Amino acid sequence: MTNSETKATLSFSDGSPSLEMPIYKGSIGPDVIDIRKLYGATGKFTYDPGFMSTAACNSSITYIDGDKGELLYRGYPIEQLAVNGGDFLETCYLLLNGELPNAAQKEEFVSTVTKHTMVHEQMQFFFRGFRRDAHPMSVLVGTVGALSSFYHDSLDINDPHHREVSAIRLIAKMPTLVAMAYKYSIGQPFVYPRNDLSYSANFMHMMFSTPCEEYKVNEVLVRALDRILILHADHEQNASTSTVRLAGSSGANPFACIAAGIACLWGPAHGGANEAALSMLEEIGSVDNITHFISQVKDKNSGVKLMGFGHRVYKNYDPRAKLMRETCYEVLQELGLQDDPLFKLAMALEKIALEDEYFVSRKLYPNVDFYSGIVQRALGIPTALFTGIFALARTVGWIAQWKEMISDPEQKIGRPRQLFVGAAKRDVVAIDKR
Ligand code: CMC
After folding, report:
1. Which of 226, 234, 311, 318 is flagged as catalytic?
2. 3-state secondary structure at position 9
3. Catalytic site residue 226?
4. pLDDT at site 322
5. Fewest 10 Å CB contacts: which of 63, 113, 198, 229?
6. Which segments of 196-313 does DSSP mark as H helices, in order?
7. Which of 78, 137, 262, 364, when mutated, tests ligand 1's pocket best, judged by the most ligand atoms within 8 Å of its CB?
8. Catalytic residue among 369, 408, 427, 432, which?
C-alpha cells in the first residue's frame, strides 16, 4: 500500500468524536480512504451494497477508466493487445507475470501450458454423471471443482511452486473441459487435445473434430476466438473475480476458488449476458420490432432489459465492444454471412439505442456481450456454451488475481459486516402460546 500524504476527516452530528483517516493514491484512478480503523474508533460500519464505493484490495493487474472507456492489462491498452499484442497465451503471460514475454519466455510458457492440456482420464467418468441436457456452466462448476480431487500435488497454497503449477493447469485444462462439456451434451466422443496446434486452434479441434473427421483449422476463425479470449481475460474486481478472491481468502484451493468464480459468472447480469443478448436478438426477430422492444425496455414494470447494454464501470462505449464488432464483421465476411440478419438487427438496435434519451441520459452503451454472441454463433459455438467460453477466457484473470491476493501481506479473510434490521433479542414462546 502506498504511503498516505493526505488525510480525510470524518465528523459526526451525533456527538461521536471526529476521525482522521489516511488517503492513499494509486498509480492512476481514484484515491481511496482507509476506513479500517473506523469501527474500532467509532463503533460504526460503512454501508455500501454492491460495493459501489469500496476498494476491497490493491491490485496491479487491470485498470478500467469507465468514463473514458479505457481498459488496460498491466498498463497496456486492450486495443493494442488485441490488434498487435500477439496471441492469447501472450496475454496470459502478461496477466500472470506483469510483463509481456520475450521470444524465449513465450516459447517456454507455451510449451509448459501445452504439456498440461490433457485432463486425468478418470474425469470422463465424472462427466458421465451429468444429464446430457445439463447446462455447460453447471458441468463446469462441477468438473473444475473436481480438479482439486485429481491434482493433490499442487494444492498447497503456501507453496509458490504449487500455486504456479495450479495456475498453468487451470489455463491449460479449461479448453479441454469446455470442449468435453460440449461433446458430452451432443453425445459425441471426447476429443483429446493436439499439442501441435495453438491454444485456440486446439480448442476448435477438440470442439469440432470427431474420430471420423478432423476439423480443418481456419486461421480467420482461430484469430477471432483468440480475440474473444483476450478481450475477456480480465476485468479487475468484477463479481466473479471478487468471488474468487473471497473464496480464496479463506485458504480454499485454487480449483475450488475458480469453480466459485464460474458459478458467479453464470448469472445473466454478468457472464450469462452474451447468451441472453443473442436470445434477445432472436426474440426481437426483425428491425421492424425494435421500436416495440425499446418501449418495453423503457417500461420499468416490464422487467425487460436491453441485454449487452450498460455496465457498472463503463459509462462510455466499452472498448471491448468496438473490437468485438470489428471481429464480428471479419468472421461474417470470411464465412460469406455478411448479410446475417442478426448482425444487421444488432447494428440497427445499437444505433437506435445510442440516440434514445433513455440510454443517453443513463450512459448506457454496448458492452462486450452485445456482439460476442453473434461471433460465437458464427464460429459454430452453441448458445448454451457462450458463458463457458467466457469462463475459459477469464480463468487466467481469476488465477492471476488469486495469486496476487495470496502474496499480498495485507490479505485477510473476506468478511463483510451488515446493518441488522431484523428482530432484536426476544424469548421463544411455547408452541401452544403462539
Ligand atoms: N437495459 C435497460 N435499462 C438499463 C440497462 C439495460 N441493459 N442497464 C441499466 N439500465 C438502467 C437501470 O434500470 C437504471 O435505471 P434507473 O436509473 O431509471 O433506475 C440505470 O440504467 C442504472 O443502472 P444500474 O442498474 O444502476 O446499473 P448497474 O451498474 O447496477 O448494472 C449491469 C450494470 C451490467 C448489471 C446492467 O447494466 C445490466 O443489467 N445490463 C444488462 C446485462 C448485461 O449486458 N451484462 C453484461 C455486463 S458486461 C460483461 C461482464 O462484465 O460480465
Report:
1. 311
2. strand
3. no
4. 92
5. 63
6. 199-208, 219-231, 239-249, 254-265, 273-284, 290-298
7. 364
8. 369
Task: Give the separation between CA 270 and CA 244, rounded to whole angstroms.
Answer: 14
Of all residues in the chain, what percent are helix, strand and coil, respectively (each to 5)?
55, 5, 40
The predicted pLDDT at position 1 comes to 58
Ligand 1 contact, 229 CB (< 6 A): no
All residue ranges of the chain with pLDDT < 70 are 1-4
d(CA 384, CA 395) in angstroms, rounded, equals 18
DSSP assignment letter at 147: G
Is the CB of 240 within 6 Å of ligand 1?
no
Cα(386)–Cα(372) distance, integer angstroms: 9
Question: What pLDDT does 4 receive?
Answer: 67
- Kindly state the DSSP code that residue 425 receives in the 8-state scheme: S
Q: What is the residue with the minimal CA distance to atom 28 of ligand 1?
A: 312
Instruction: Give me the pLDDT at residue 338, please.
Output: 85
Mapping DSSP to helix (H, G, I), strand (E, B) and coil, where does residue 358 land?
helix
Residue 362: count of CB within 10 angstroms of its CB: 11
**Could you give the CA distance from residue 397 to residue 390 in angstroms, rounded to a whole number?**
11
The two beta strands, 32-33 and 62-65, are: unpaired
Closest among 337, 371, 379 to 207, alpha carbons compared: 379
Cell numbers at 2, concatenated:
502506498
Residue 253 near residue 148 (C-beta atoms within 8 A): yes
Could you tell me if the CB of 315 is within 6 A of ligand 1? no
Alpha-carbon distance values, 90 to 110, 336, 340 (Å): 9, 30, 32
Name the DSSP letter for residue 22. E
Cα separations in angstroms, 255 against 37, 124, 363: 34, 17, 37
- Give residue-wise pLDDT tens across range 95-124: 999 999 999 999 999 999 999 999 999 999
Question: Which residues partner with 20 through β-bridges?
Answer: 9
Q: Is 270 in the pocket of ligand 1 (CB under 6 A)?
A: yes
Query: Which of the listed residues 231, 234, 299, 305 should we mutate to test ligand 1's pocket, taking the one with most ligand atoms within 8 A of CB?
Result: 305
135 is catalytic: no
Check: CB of residue 266 under 8 Å from CB of residue 152: no
pLDDT of residue 425: 97
Tell me how far apart the alpha carbons of residues 279 and 163 are, in angstroms, rounded to a whole number: 39
pTM passes above 0.90: yes
Segment (H or E) for 68:
none
